[in-house]
Amino acid sequence: RRSEQLAARTPPAPRPSQRPAAAVAPATDPALAAGPATLRIDFFTELPEGVVTIYAGSKQILNEPYRFYKHTGLFRNEPKAGTIEASRQVPAGAVSLRIYVALPKRPPVVRTVEAQLTGGATRRLKIHFDRAGQLAVALE
C-alpha cells in the first residue's frame, strides 16, 4: 500500500524523447554574440525631397539626400513617393537611434528610439514620413 502511495505522489521521469524542447539549451557561439549588430534601414517618404540622417549614439550611420520626381514632359516633373534602403553595422548593446529628416524651407523633424541590439543579430528600423510631415519610427 505504501508503494502505491509513493507511486501516486511522484510523477514518472520523462524519457529523453519526451523532454520538452525548452529544456534543451542551444549552444551559443560567444564570438557571434560579441560582434556588431546589423541595422537594416527602410525609409519611406511621401514628400519628394529632403535629407534623412541617422545617428547611433554619437556616430552618424546614414546621411542620404533624396529627390523623388517623375519626369512627365519637357521641363515638367511630378513629385512622387520614394524609398531608401540601407544596411549598417552598429556596435551591440544599448544604443540611442536619432532620426532627422530635413526638408527644404522647413524645420527638421527628429525622433529618437532607444534600442537594445544583440551582437550578430539583424534588426529592422522602419521609418515612414507622411505628406503632413509626421515621422513614424518602429524598430522590429
Give a summary of the structure in a few sentences:
The chain is built from 2 helices and 10 strands. With 140 residues, the protein is mainly beta.
Would you kindly provide a written description of the structure presented here, covering whatever features stand out?
By secondary structure, the protein is mainly beta. It is 9% helix and 54% strand. The strands form three sheets. The protein has a four-stranded mixed β-sheet with strand order 6-1-9-10, with no helix packed on it. The chain has a four-stranded antiparallel β-sheet with strand order 3-2-7-8, with no helix packed on it. The chain has a two-stranded antiparallel ribbon with strand order 4-5. The relative contact order is 0.23.
